[in-house]
Design a protein that fits this description.
The chain is globular, with a radius of gyration of 20 Å. The protein has an eight-stranded antiparallel beta sheet with strand order 11-10-9-6-5-4-3-18. A six-stranded antiparallel beta sheet has the order 12-1-2-15-16-17, with helices on one face. A two-stranded parallel ribbon has the order 7-8. By secondary structure, the chain is an alpha+beta fold. The protein has helices at about 100-105, 110-120, 175-180, 220-230, 240-250, and strands at about 1-10, 10-20, 25-30, 50-60, 60-70, 75-80, 95, 120-125, 140-145, 145-155, 155-160, 165-170, 260-265, 265, 270-275, 280-285, 295, 310. A hairpin with a 2-residue loop joins strand 10 and strand 11 (about 155-160). About 15% of the residues lie in helices and about 30% in strands. The longest helix has 13 residues, at about 220-230. The protein is built from five helices and 18 strands.
Amino acid sequence: MCTALTLTAGDHYFGRNLDLEYSHQESVVVMPRRFPLRFHSADPLTSHYAIIGAAIVVDDYPLYYDAANEHGLSVAGLHFPGNAVYHPKSPGKYNVTPYEFIPWLLSQCKTLTEARSLLDNLNLLDVSFGQCYPLTPLHWFIADPYASITLESTATGLHIHDNAPGVLTNNPPFDYHMHNLSNYLSLTSGDPVKHLAPMVDLPVWSRGLGAVGLPGDLSSPSRFVRTVFTKSHSTCSPDETSSVNQFFHILASVAMTEGTVKAENAFAKTVYSSCINMDKGLYYYTTYQNSRPACVSLHHADPDSIALKVYPFLTEPDFLYQN
């Protein structure tokens, strides 16, 4: 259960809500240019683009949830159960495991155009990181500052969808979400047009009536529609503080409060929310316990070193007492 989006508001931004019933003690992890990046079925890279994102580190390997490289290309993996299908090794293809897909793509592509040229020959392997880390069914949201796509590996193969809204949630597959948007063509941030009974003088008695019918539940299709609507009508000043603040407000409109979505024997919640300034390499985040944004800079973390730099999430509540 997750929501991801892009936003242009002065600079270009990319980020997501991670909605789960547990946390793996995520950190902001910077992978510098000379970190030896190994792959399951390809030669390691000893020189590549620097990457920043949210991850857990296991055996000195960063398992990224979402990340961006120094050129602004960004990727987030979102839960896609029942639809994601990974495949055996295929000769002549780029055989990449799901857990290494984000660093594999971001380490070598500057733009979405470069990424698409690699994705056309990609095969996602049915190989997990290890017994303690089984395969996670995912689809991916990929963007640079100018466009975005959705990548889905299913039983019928690999599918690349242009993502004009710049939004992704979870099931069903992306084609459904785009088709479903047509059910909400009449929504507006202004007053509704009076088509019901033109001969009757009906008052517009409240602000917001133009958005009556906007879904408010926490299902994936509803979060997709609500995020598209909120993002499309979003407006703010173009400075960094206003833009980042606005991005987190959009994510908050689809965030999960603990207790409202039951997942087996626990409740899902928005474990963290991220906002990446794609132009400046700044990774902002909030956590469920601490809604004050924190920021890590890719360029202040020695991007030419050889060792991962790990910044644990700040999860303790941080209140400002004014008296």
